[in-house]
Design goal:
single chain, about 210 residues, alpha+beta, five-stranded antiparallel beta sheet, 7 helices, about 45% helix, about 10% strand, binds flavin mononucleotide
């Protein structure tokens, strides 16, 4: 394996909102290619019950964007104004800007599980969510490797049923996220600032980060 390339992919797959190319068409094949790669992700009991809903219809994207806007725009504008640290302020401002541009992002992808998740039991909930989330992240990594970008969003789930009705998603399925997908404007993304792993890693027992030893 070319470790440098793999590390670059893993450290620079960012939440892309302001650098989505709204004018460049995205072909069906590249989306399917990324889904094929994502389907190598694990699922509990090897159930492989992922479903991918790809939305390119302009009317449906506009309707999804309306719902997304109604859930998030006001809150995100407020949060952007109130945030004290600059990185968080930038995140909220970018997220707020996406509520305005979402309809124009050429492809919306909703990763689903063909199952209804029972969130009352930790074992079943963790198993079900982890049967779609790794595939979703692989999809975003695959996009990045091909010059496309996206951002993991969950905002529309506050009005999940309306989006389900719009797209014919049965109430036996679960939507996990909404990915606005486009080619990125430039491909030079950088690793984000994160704390040293030693400060958040415990060894053998909870409580003493390995960096303190
Ligand atoms: C579970 C989850 C939900 C998220 N929901 C939203 C969302 O609804 N809207 C949005 O613009 N970003 C959303 N994000 C993106 C985060 O804001 C973003 O990942 C974070 O700020 C870190 O940025 P980075 O991924 O570039 O490091 C979500 C991320 C995760 C993991």
């Amino acid at each position: 394996m070319d470790i440098a390339t793999v590390d670059e992919l893993l450290t620079t797959t960012r939440a892309v909102r302001n650098r989505l190319d709204l004018d460049r068409p995205v072909g069906r094949e590249v989306i399917l290619e990324c889904i094929r790669l994502a389907m190598q992700a694990p699922t509990a009991s090897n159930a492989q019950d992922w479903r991918w809903l790809v939305i390119t219809d302009a009317g449906k994207r506009a309707a999804i964007a309306d719902i997304y806007h109604s859930v998030g725009a006001e809150y995100l504008a407020y949060a952007a104004k109130e945030a004290s640290d600059p990185q968080t302020r930038r995140v909220y401002a970018g997220a707020q800007a996406l509520t305005e541009t979402l309809a124009r992002v050429p492809v919306h992808v909703i990763p689903c599980l063909d199952n209804r998740i029972d969130n009352s039991n930790l074992l079943t909930a963790a198993s079900a969510w982890a049967s779609i989330i790794p595939a979703g992240w692989s999809f975003l990594l695959a996009l990045r490797s091909r010059g496309l970008g996206s951002v993991w969003t969950t905002m529309h789930l506050a009005r999940e049923r309306e989006v389900a009705e719009l797209l014919g998603i049965p109430d036996t399925a679960t939507q996990a996220a909404l990915f606005p997908v486009a080619y990125t404007i430039g491909t030079d993304f950088r690793p984000a600032k994160r704390p040293p792993a030693e400060t958040i890693t415990y060894w053998d027992a909870w409580g003493h980060p390995v960096g303190e030893r």
